[in-house]
Amino acid sequence: MKAIIVDDERLARNELKRLLENFPSIEVIGEAANTDEASQLIEELQPDVVFLDIQMPGKTGFEWLEEWDGFLPEIIFTTAFDEYALKAFEVNALDYVLKPIELARLSESIQKLESRFQRPASTEKSVTANHVLGGNDQIFVKDGEKCWFVRLDRVRLCESMGNYVRLFFDDQKPLVLKSLNSLEERLDPKLFFRCNRKHIVNLNFIEKIEPWFSGGLQVTLKGEKAEKIEISRRQSIRFKELLSL
């Protein structure tokens, strides 16, 4: 797995690189001292994971994530401050590791990362064969004591809620323990569109499209709730290409 380290302290980057040498599955392919450098590296190198500091000159790690609308790898925060842990998981971070980083704690993060990218060889073929789910497919959803068996073409919106995704269908909105990225991989891209880092919409539920700030778009969904979802500037380009003649 390809990794990038983003930290304004050179000694901290060097120490993390040294620790990561203990894990043959990780290859550090770049490092950045700030978020501007990080953006360029991610676009050029397409890493699998970013080890991201929070407090840096210019933009903080959180500010950068809020603005970033391109390809986003897995994020592991590395920081000396423990008060940001809850917020880290609200932005779908894979893990949150406190400095000074201990090898045992880093090993836990790498195990989480490996579990995201590795599948047992015996099941890989069957998972791939059933990878994409279309509108006619039915899914089983359980949230607490409630259960649903729902066709995907009834799901109008998927919203990231930290380590969970909230599904919106009819007047229901259960939570499922799944990341938005992993859900996106299973959904038919002809029916479901990734609008931004937090939302996937069912294209058949879009009722209105309006220009929005910074070159983006805003869509309004059908139904009593009429949810309004922003399409980021980068995704707006894809959206227009997808729906144009």
UniProtKB/TrEMBL annotation:
Keywords: Phosphoprotein. The modification 4-aspartylphosphate is found at residue 53. Gene3D superfamilies: 3.40.50.2300, LytTr DNA-binding domain. It holds the Pfam family LytTR. The keyword ATP-binding does not apply. SUPFAM superfamilies: CheY-like. Residues 139-245 form the HTH LytTR-type domain. One of its GO terms (molecular function) is phosphorelay response regulator activity. Residues 2-114 form the Response regulatory domain. This is Response regulator. It comes from Aquirufa antheringensis.
